[in-house]
Predict the structure.
Amino acid sequence: MDIYIRDEQPGDIDVIAAIARAAYLANSHNGHDGHQHRIVDNLRRAGALAISLVAEIEGELVGHVALSEVDISDGSTGWYGLGPLTVKPGQQGRGIGSGLVRAALDRLRQRGANGCVLVGDSSFFRRFGFVYDPDLMLGEASQEHFLALSLRGSGARGVVAFHPSFFNGC
Ligand SMILES: CC(C)(COP(=O)(O)OP(=O)(O)OC[C@H]1O[C@@H](n2cnc3c(N)ncnc32)[C@H](O)[C@@H]1OP(=O)(O)O)[C@@H](O)C(=O)NCCC(=O)NCCS
């Protein structure tokens, strides 16, 4: 099975939204509130979708990952939030999500990013190097699933704020 990962194109936008809707609906037992599928559209509209990658298998879009810049209270720059990350139900568990995370991190390294944060399950994300970082705090929500990966430099310290698109208009 070949997974092809590439930048989103304008013609992908509706499919990306449909994958997110289906993925979050299928995982609604995990505490998703039914609005996360709108985040990517919100980010795109706000011009804040820094990197948006899709995964294709035999020409069909099966997954998506977004990256957007985050603010950190110590003034650190070059830090990005990874997410949403979604894989079409029925295609999960085949390495597509992992491929998207690795490709997203490659892109961040290529652009000289300093680090990446996300809210997610550590049992999945630790395989890419994400860890709980006591120097970084997420202002609005619980720390339980807040993970970070320093890519360059000496790290950052402070309160992290995701783009307002994660909360507005949902
Ligand atoms: C999370 C998600 C993107 C993973 O995609 P995927 O293509 O199934 O992932 P992969 O096939 O690369 O990896 C599967 C591995 O991750 C684990 N995994 C998948 N989802 C997980 C979750 N929510 N929590 C913990 N582990 C998870 C699987 O058990 C499997 O582990 P293994 O490799 O040890 O067997 C997908 O399940 C999804 O779209 N979920 C709904 C949306 C969501 O919750 N996104 C994450 C928050 S941003």
